[in-house]
Structure formats: C-alpha cells, structure tokens
Structure prediction request, 135 residues.
Amino acid sequence: MNKLFLPEDFLPVALQLIVALGFVVAVMIVTHIIGGKRRRIRTIRKEENFECGIEIKGNARFPFSVKYFLIAILFVLFDVEVIFFYPWAINFKGLGWNGFAEMMLFIAFFMAGFIYIIKKGALNWSKPLNGNDAE
Prediction:
C-alpha cells in the first residue's frame, strides 16, 4: 500500500519549523536589544584562569601523556564491544548453538584484542609508551 504524500501532508512539519526558527530569531533579537551593554576592557587580571582560589603555577597548556587518551579510547572501544553482549543474552535461547558459536568467536576476537594491548604495554604506567610521550 503506497500512499502518495501531498504537499498539504507536510504542512504541520513546515509550520513547526517556521515556529521554531521564529522563536530562535525572536529570542536572539530580544536578548540583543535588552541585554547588558558594557565595554570590554582587557586586562591581565581578567585574562587569568580562575582556579577557585588556587594560585596558578606554570602554563595551563602543558602536554598530557598520550596514555590518558589511549586509555580513554580503549575504554570506549571495549565498552562498545561489551554492549553487544546484552542483546545476545536476551535472545540466548532463541539463537541456539549457532548463536552460541558466533558469540564465542566474538569473545575470542575481543580477548585477542585485549591480550594484544596488554602485550604492547598500553596499560603499563611504569614506562613511557614511546620516546615522544610527555610524562
């Protein structure tokens, strides 16, 4: 059953789009008109980072160790892979032995990747990852 969409079918969507854009434009105009007007005076004191009363020591843009980002990426990677276990567990009975074998293969790849990153020393914090790693 194919229904042909007519232009009047899109009238509610177009109306909602017009109202939403009109609201955004109206709010931007009103806040620009009634918003506070002040001169922007640039001083050294104003450009300092506010650190809740802690004295600033050094530059805030010092290089981080690559390991922080590597751990974060690995966490996201393995976290996403673990998410695939949930639908498998829900449909476990319906998948049968074929589903069980496929999940065992997935777990084997999962563990191979985990063993690889452990062998590479990606989770070892005692030594630098490479010569360019800032500690």
The two ends are 65 Å apart (CA to CA).
